[in-house]
Each structure stands twice: as C-alpha cells, then as structure tokens.
DNA sequence: GACATCACG
DNA sequence: GACGTACGTGATGTCC
C-alpha cells in the first residue's frame, strides 16, 4: 500500500530509548570479543528489532514504521522547570558508547530512525500519532511509558512489546482511572518521582482520578478547590495550584513538534541484506547473524573466532585431576586459601558431615575451590585408623587443624558480605554452619541455578549436572562409605580418599557456577532465580531448624488404638475370606477377591496383577463385606505406619521437635516438597486421620496459627484464562463452585443443591488438571457421555478456559516450555511425543502455569515474611503449598494474623497485578487440628 | 529397586 | 478409529 498516509494505513512508532534501556538491563555486560567494546545493549536492541520485524506479518502489519529516539539532555521542559528529570541517574559508562550504535542498527534494519535536538522522543511520537489520527490512519505506539497514554484513542493505541499486551482507552482507564483526555490532569496532580514532576504533595493516582472525575477537569478542580470536603486535601490544592499547573505543562506532550519529514517518509522498507548482515558481522553477533541470514535466504557472514584470554580458564579447558587437590593441614595453608578467596571475591564451598540429616550431622571437613581444577579439602575431625585397622580408637588422624582454629579463620570470610559463597544445595551447608553459630551469606546455589533454567528437563543433583554439563562422572561415595550395616561415616574415610572426593565436589560446583551464572540472563530467568529461589534458602533453613513440636504420647496412644482395631479387622477379614493371608499384600488380596471368591470386575494391570486400589474396593463394597473391611484396615495401616509410628522416630531428641526438610528444586512446577518426614501430607480429609494433627502442638504459653490461601489456583485460573464471571465472583466473595454450577446448569444460587455444587467443584478442579471426559466420569462416577456433556457446557459457558488450554498447548509445542506469571519456566520436553505421553505432557503443561504461579505467590510471601513479623514473638514453621503454619506467643495471635495476612494477600504485588484479590483464612489453636 | 497404594494440596 | 486419560508430590509395604 502506498500513496499519501491516510485511511487503511497503520503507523508503528517504536520508543527507541525504552528498547535500549530494556536491552541494557536484560543482558549481561557483553563485550565485543575482538576489542572489548561494550555491546550488550546493542545486541539486545538488535534482537528486539529482529523479533519485532519477524512478528510483523499478517493483515495487521504496519504500513509505516519509525524508531524514535531522545536527543540531547536539554529540552524545553528544562526551561520551564530547572529540576525536571533532575534526579535521573547518570547513564552507565558502558551504555554511553552504545547509544550511537543503536541508531546505526536501526538504519541497518532499514527502519526510519528519527530524533530532534531539544525534544524528547515522546513529543515526536505525540506529533506523529496526532498526524496519523488526523489523516484517518491507525497508529500503534510500541512502548509501555505511561506518559504516552494521553495519546491513546481515535485509532491510536499502545503496545507493550514485552508483555505483548495492547493498551486501548479502557487499558488507560484501568491504569489512571480516567480516559486518555484526562490523563494529563491526573499526572499533573499525582506528579512523577522518576521524572521529578512535583504534582500535589500527598496525592497519588487514585485520589487524583477521584478528584478529576468529580470535578470534570483540572481547571474546574483548581477553580472550585474550596469546595473539597477533606480539609487537608483542599488546602494542598489551594496552596500548590501553580505547581500543579506547571506539572501539567511538564507532562503534556508537544503535539506540534516541528519535523523535517512527513508520515509518507516512514513507509515500511525491506532490509538491505548486505547492509544488515554487514552490520551484524561488524558487531560480531554470531547467533543473530545466522538467524537473520536464514530469514533473508542468505549465507551467514563468517565472523572470526577471537582468541579466548589466556588468563580466563573455562571449565571445559581444565581436565579433572583428583591428584591435584590440596590437603590443607595447617593454618598457614588455610590462610593462603582465604587470601586467594579475597582476591577472587567468591568461593565454592562444600561441607562433609557425619550424615545426611543436617539437624544431627556433625561437620567433618570443608572443601573450597576458586578456580577450575584447583580445590582443597580441610579435614577437621577425621579419625585415625586403629591398630587393628578397625577404627577402634577415637583418636583424630594427623594433618588436621583443630576445628575451632579453622573456623576462627574461616568464619569472617563465610560471613563477609563481599564474598560470595557458592554451593550445590546451599541450604544443607548453611544449616551445618548455622549449628556452629556461623551465618553464611551471601550465597549462590548451582542446584537452584539449574532449577531456574532447566525445570522439567532433568534433575538438579550434582551428579546429574556434572555428567550433563561437564561430561564428568564424579567420584562415587558408595565405595568410600560402604552400604548397609557396615557403612561408615565420612569421618572414618581415610584422608587421602577424603581429599579427592570432597575437593572434587567443590571443583564441580565452581565449574557449574561459572557455566550457569552467565546463562541465567540468556534463558531469561534471572528474576526467577534472584527473587524466588535464592532468597528462599535462608528462610527455609530457619523454618527447618525451628521444627514443630510433636507430642509423642498422643501419637503413641493413637498407635496402640489403631493396632487394636486392625487386629479386630484382620480377624473379620480372615473369616470372610475363609483363610489367613497378608492383608497388606495387594497381590494376595486380588487372588482372594477375584480367583477364590469369584467377585466380578477383576482387572489386571500392566504387571498382570489385579488392581485393588480404593476405587476398585469401593465398587466391590456394595456387593461384599470383605472389601469394605480391607478399606478400613488400609486406612488404619496407613495412619499407623506412616504417621503415628514413623513420626515418632522423627522427633529430634535434642529439640523434642520434628524438623522436616524442604526440597526447593524437587517439583518442576515451583512447589516445594517436604521430606524426612513429609509434613505436607499429614491427614486431614478423614475424621480419624485428622486427629493426627492433635499431636502437632504449640509450646506452653504459645499457640499455633494457620493461614491459608482460599482457592488460590482457581483464582489464578480466572486471571490467566481471563474469565470475567469467575473473576467477578471472587471479587464479590461468592461461593465459586456454586457459581459455576449456577452458570452451567442454570440453577439460581439460592436454590443450589449440594450435589450439583459437588459436581461443579469436580469440574473446576478438573479444569486445573487438564480435564478429560474419562477422568471426570471416573471421579464423579457418572457415564462418560454425561461427563463430556458437562465439560462441553463448561467450555461453552467459559470459552476463555478452552482458549487458555489451546494457547498453552500451542505455546508449549512452539517453545518447549510454559511459564508462570512470574516468569518461571517449566519445560515440557514430551509435548510433541507420540502416543499417550503427549496427553500427559499436555495436561501437565496446562496445569503447570496455574500450580506454578500459586507456588510463586507463596514463595514471595515466605520471603517477605521474616521482615514482616520481625517485631512479633512469632516463628514461621511449615508450608503446605497454600498454607503457612506459625507458632506465636499467646496474646500476639491477632497481630501475627494481621501481619502475615497482609503479606500473603499482597504477595503478587508489585510484579503481577492480579485481576482477582487473594483471600487468606486464618485459624488459631493449641494444636494444628484446632488451628486449621 | 519396581510397583501399588494412599496421604496431602 | 483406537488408545489411554485429571496435576503435583513422598512414604510405606510387598515382592522379586
């Protein structure tokens, strides 16, 4: 399309400074290999331009486009107000030389590049947008700068390229509470701390919008300021009227910037392949050159591989050699290591201990590494071999620094805020040090780096990572410790072996860190790692060390009661079966039920054994008493073995409390997992099981407080899939399952029966899991066709759900991962598999953003919690996915609930603005049963 | 160590 | 049209 710009034309205006700023902060400080020129921002800028150009296909593609830049630091606004943008930070040194290169880049892409001395880019954009509107064409401003929102409307809209979200008049209203024509008035009142626009003191956007909407516009408001009821607000407006008018002039964009070009000069042009590829080659952008060349159908330019600096060894260059590891046996050698650590500013640390339970294990030795291949082990309490070679004596081996002495030297370094301590699963090591009163900080964790980048692809244990990323199989621990009863602890491992094994772990950790850390940016998960993973480590360490008090007598009494009941049931079962057998053996039970007794419905699984799961037995229970008895027996057996018995063994003899361990990198979705023991699956659904929670108690003088998010996953679904009815119901506090039932079946809310509600509830949950007719039918025990009918009606009523499911599957197929609202990536490698695996992967992909976002939310709450409750006599003890359990001194319960609820309900802010509020329910009691 | 089962969100 | 089918976990007991 050509001719004079007008109807049918579509102008894109890109806010160049915003692109540069974003590119600069999104990428690590890259430099051009050949000469060290800082190039990160240019690289990011080019990537964004390329992506932009590639994304511009289809009927909505622009006919005209320009990138608009700021020029010069002095504009007419500085003449109006000398403090305008006065508290802007200076441009970073390494960004300055890149600015002109972004102009060159724009021209290399053959996109119009415009700027004007004395004017901000915003003014040029305003002028062009107004011209485009006047000519009857459309204009899209690619920026998220709120100052540009005053231009929206009448064919002008904005596009946030990062979020790929367009902002129209309603979007502006959402942001400012007024439509675009009054945005300037609101900004004039609210001011802007970034640009140093003064505004009216004490008035923010909300109040400003309120006032403008009440009085019509700013002039009317200032004229009638005397009518304002609130005395403080009235006085502010009267006193600062001039300042407010000045602010309006500052934020009002100049729509009449004199320009020496017209819209027609901005017509979209094809890039000149040679020019573009030439520029990219000059910048030495290998990957982008290749990508662009592919699109243009050209050969990628060859870019000479610059020699890697000799003094920067990378992991791949240094072979693993355990013989080179150093045994640090005296303080002089240790001091030399500490000195080296201070030279580098970081160190990989690993502790060796007497066991895997970090609440009990004792420190045996410490290994350190600052450069690949150069690591040491500092043994502390290794035992000397006894005369009979059987470690009969308690004597320490030679060549060890006394623990106290070594820690005296190491502690300042471990606690030094300027020295980064790198570990693999640092929560373990920091807990070991915490036992000794040493507070290790700051930390980096290779396990969590991997988790942030590779969740869903593979595990994140050191052996896995070493083999995958370093092509090196670590020395196995088993031959050193042995197995079973004859296994020894690490302090009995001979020093020569211990040095090799232990130092290698630090070596591997350092190499992984060197490899992973720069990749974080590239994978785009720096924020995830920095805000959701790393800060959680000390929080969890503290919770685990606190533990929760569990009353042994309560458990013991329950255990005896269960045993008695089970014995009674066993007698009945043998009677009904006609013989004795092992009730706990599904295999034997299946044979009894289906072969000997000849009951119908025996189905064999893959392994050829009959299925005897609860669902099968429940069906059989209508026909026969035996399956019902077995179900009862199984419930008791589960409660006894897993809870009343095993839990007692987990009571720490020193603290009298149970200390679980949370794995941060276990669940692919971002959820935590609790192990040894698992305190996230303590019974609650059955009345009998629920009583186990009576054993979880507060110390005398204290109470337990439980706070849990109400329906968090459904709220997140309502937001992500954008379902207006569900969002409204949550805002209004309406029973969401009843609402769903009402919408689907046309039953008014006040006539809802519990059965219809129950069905709707199953559907709501099913949706979160990637529903299927079969699955819903089985869950509700209704015919499959009927279940499918429900699902069809649900999708019809809430079409956004189907769109979400389809979009998510498509996204996973295209990218190989899905994302939470906070940017956590969950990889879905099997999404394109054949057969049933694809189905699994698709449902997991649908579920992951929902479950994962909820997990992110509570992580954020937990990370903020210590600060929020620091002045209260309270401790955070447990997390159960959507619940936090606290122990608090009596009298402070309400204060704690208020503080913790505040943090939990606002945990998504300010990164994610949820369309639904988050509600938190709270309970207090002497036991977990009472508090829930 | 695999499998079945069942506890939780 | 057949196939297999609700998401994410951990602990326990049986059986080979």
Automatic annotation (TrEMBL):
Could you state one GO biological process linked to this protein? double-strand break repair
5'-3' exonuclease domain segment(s): 9-269
Task: Show the PROSITE patterns listed in the entry.
Answer: DNA_POLYMERASE_A
Q: Which InterPro entries match?
A: 3'-5'_exonuclease_dom, 5-3_exonucl_a-hlix_arch_N, 5-3_exonuclease, 5-3_exonuclease_C_sf, DNA-dir_DNA_pol_A_CS, DNA-dir_DNA_pol_A_palm_dom, DNA/RNA_pol_sf, DNA_polI_H3TH
What catalytic activity does the UniProt entry give for this protein? DNA(n) + a 2'-deoxyribonucleoside 5'-triphosphate = DNA(n+1) + diphosphate
Per its record, what are the GO molecular function terms?
A: 3'-5' exonuclease activity; 5'-3' exonuclease activity; DNA binding; DNA-directed DNA polymerase activity
Domain DNA-directed DNA polymerase family A palm span(s) in chain numbering:
689-892
Query: Per the UniProt record, which EC number(s) apply here?
Result: 2.7.7.7
Residue ranges of domain 3'-5' exonuclease in the record: 325-521
Key words, A-Z? DNA damage, DNA repair, DNA replication, DNA-binding, DNA-directed DNA polymerase, Exonuclease, Hydrolase, Nuclease, Nucleotidyltransferase, Transferase
Under the heading Gene3D superfamilies, the entry gives:
3.30.70.370, 5' to 3' exonuclease, C-terminal subdomain, 5'-nuclease, Ribonuclease H-like superfamily/Ribonuclease H, Taq DNA Polymerase, Chain T, domain 4
Keyword Nuclease assigned to the entry: answer is: yes
Catalytic EC class: transferase
Domain of life assignment = Bacteria
Please name the SUPFAM superfamilies in this protein's record: 5' to 3' exonuclease, C-terminal subdomain, DNA/RNA polymerases, PIN domain-like, Ribonuclease H-like
NCBIfam families in the record, alphabetically? pola (TIGR00593), PRK05755.1 (NF004397)
Q: How does it assemble?
A: Single-chain monomer with multiple functions.
The record's comment on protein family reads:
Belongs to the DNA polymerase type-A family.
The task this protein performs is described as: In addition to polymerase activity, this DNA polymerase exhibits 3'-5' and 5'-3' exonuclease activity.
What name does UniProt use for this protein? DNA polymerase I
- What gene, per UniProt, encodes this protein? polA
């Amino acid at each position: 399309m050509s001719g004079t710009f007008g109807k049918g034309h579509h102008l894109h205006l890109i806010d160049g400074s915003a692109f540069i700023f974003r590119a600069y902060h999104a990428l690590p400080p890259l430099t051009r290999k050949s000469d060290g020129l800082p190039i990160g921002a240019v690289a990011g800028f080019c990537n964004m331009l390329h992506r932009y150009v590639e994304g511009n296909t289809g009927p909505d593609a622009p006919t005209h486009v320009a990138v608009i830049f700021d020029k010069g630091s002095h504009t007419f606004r500085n003449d109006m107000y000398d403090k305008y943008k006065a508290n802007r930070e200076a441009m970073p040194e390494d960004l300055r030389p890149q600015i002109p290169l972004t102009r060159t880049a724009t021209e290399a892409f053959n996109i119009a590049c415009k700027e004007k001395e004395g004017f901000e880019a915003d003014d040029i954009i305003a002028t062009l947008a107004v011209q485009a509107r006047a000519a009857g064409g459309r204009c899209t401003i690619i920026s998220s700068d709120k100052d540009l929102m005053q231009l929206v409307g009448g064919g002008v809209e904005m596009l946030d390229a990062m979020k790929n979200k367009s902002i129209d008049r309603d979007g502006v209203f959402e942001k400012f509470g007024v439509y675009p024509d009054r945005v300037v008035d609101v900004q004039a009142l609210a001011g802007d701390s970034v640009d140093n626009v003064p505004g009216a003191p004490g008035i923010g956007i909300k109040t400003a919008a309120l006032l403008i909407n009440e009085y019509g516009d700013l002039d009317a408001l200032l004229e009638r300021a005397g009518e304002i009821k609130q005395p403080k607000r009235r006085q502010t407006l009267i006193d600062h009227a001039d300042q407010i008018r000045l602010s309006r002039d500052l934020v009002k964009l100049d729509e009449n910037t004199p320009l020496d070009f017209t819209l027609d000069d901005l017509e979209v042009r094809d890039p000149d392949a040679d020019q573009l590829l030439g520029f990219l080659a000059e910048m030495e952008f290998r990957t982008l050159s290749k990508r662009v060349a592919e699109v243009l159908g050209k050969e990628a330019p060859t870019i000479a591989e610059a020699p890697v600096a000799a003094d920067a060894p990378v992991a791949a260059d240094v072979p693993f050699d355990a013989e080179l590891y150093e045994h640090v046996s005296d303080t002089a050698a240790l001091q030399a290591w500490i000195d080296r650590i201070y030279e580098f500013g970081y160190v990989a640390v690993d502790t060796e201990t007497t066991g895997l339970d970090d609440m009990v294990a004792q420190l045996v030795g410490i290994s350190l590494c600052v450069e690949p291949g150069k690591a040491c082990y500092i043994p502390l309490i290794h035992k000397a071999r006894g005369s009979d070679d059987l470690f009969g004596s308690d004597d320490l081996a030679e060549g060890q620094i006394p623990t106290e002495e070594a820690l005296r030297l190491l502690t300042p370094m471990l606690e030094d805020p300027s020295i980064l301590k790198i570990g693999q699963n640092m929560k373990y090591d920091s807990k070991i040090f915490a036992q000794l009163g040493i507070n290790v900080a700051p930390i980096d964790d290779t396990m969590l780096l991997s988790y942030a980048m590779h969740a869903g692809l593979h595990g994140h244990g050191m052996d896995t990572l070493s083999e995958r990323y370093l092509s090196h199989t670590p020395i196995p621990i088993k031959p050193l410790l042995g197995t079973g009863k004859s296994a020894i602890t690490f302090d009995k491992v001979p020093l020569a072996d211990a040095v090799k094994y232990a130092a290698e772990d630090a070596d591997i950790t350092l190499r992984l860190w060197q490899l992973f850390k720069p990749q974080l940016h590239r994978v785009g998960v720096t924020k995830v790692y920095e805000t959701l993973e790393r800060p959680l480590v000390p929080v969890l360490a503290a919770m685990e060390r606190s533990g929760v008090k569990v009353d042994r007598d309560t458990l013991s009494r329950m255990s005896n009661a269960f045993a008695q009941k089970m014995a009674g049931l066993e007698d009945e079962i043998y009677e009904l079966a006609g013989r004795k057998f092992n009730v706990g053996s599904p295999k034997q039970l299946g044979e009894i039920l289906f072969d000997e007794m000849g009951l119908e419905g025996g189905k064999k699984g893959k392994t050829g054994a009959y299925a005897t799961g609860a669902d099968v037995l429940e069906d059989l229970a209508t026909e026969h008493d035996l399956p019902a008895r077995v179900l009862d027996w199984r419930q008791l057996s589960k409660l006894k073995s897993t809870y009343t018995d095993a839990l007692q063994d987990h009571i720490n003899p020193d603290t009298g409390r149970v200390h679980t361990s949370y794995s941060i990198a276990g669940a692919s979705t971002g959820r935590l997992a609790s192990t040894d023991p698992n305190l996230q699956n303590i019974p609650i659904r059955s009345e009998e099981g629920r009583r186990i929670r009576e054993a979880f108690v507060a110390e005398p003088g204290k109470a337990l407080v439980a706070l849990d998010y109400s329906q968090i996953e459904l709220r997140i679904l309502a937001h992500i899939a954008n379902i207006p009815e569900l969002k409204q119901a949550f805002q209004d506090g309406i029973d969401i399952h009843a609402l769903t039932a009402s919408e689907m079946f046309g039953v008014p809310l006040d006539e809802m029966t519990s059965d219809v509600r129950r069905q709707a509830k199953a559907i709501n949950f099913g949706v979160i899991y990637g529903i299927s007719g079969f699955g819903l039918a089985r869950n509700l025990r209704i015919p499959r066709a009927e279940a499918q009918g429900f699902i069809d009606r649900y999708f019809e009523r809430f079409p956004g759900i189907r769109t979400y499911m389809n979009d998510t599957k498509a996204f996973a197929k295209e990218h190989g991962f899905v994302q939470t609202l906070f940017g956590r990536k969950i990889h879905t490698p099997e999404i394109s598999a054949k057969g049933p695996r694809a189905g699994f992967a698709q449902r997991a992909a649908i579920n992951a953003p929902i479950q994962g976002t909820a997990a992110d939310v509570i992580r954020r709450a937990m990370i903020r919690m210590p600060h929020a409750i620091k002045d209260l006599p309270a401790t955070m003890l447990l997390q159960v996915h959507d619940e936090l359990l606290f122990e608090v001194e009596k009298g402070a319960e309400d204060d704690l609930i208020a503080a913790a609820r505040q943090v939990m309900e606002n945990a998504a802010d300010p990164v994610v603005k949820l369309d639904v509020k988050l509600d938190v329910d709270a309970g207090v009691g002497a036991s977990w049963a009472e508090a829930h």
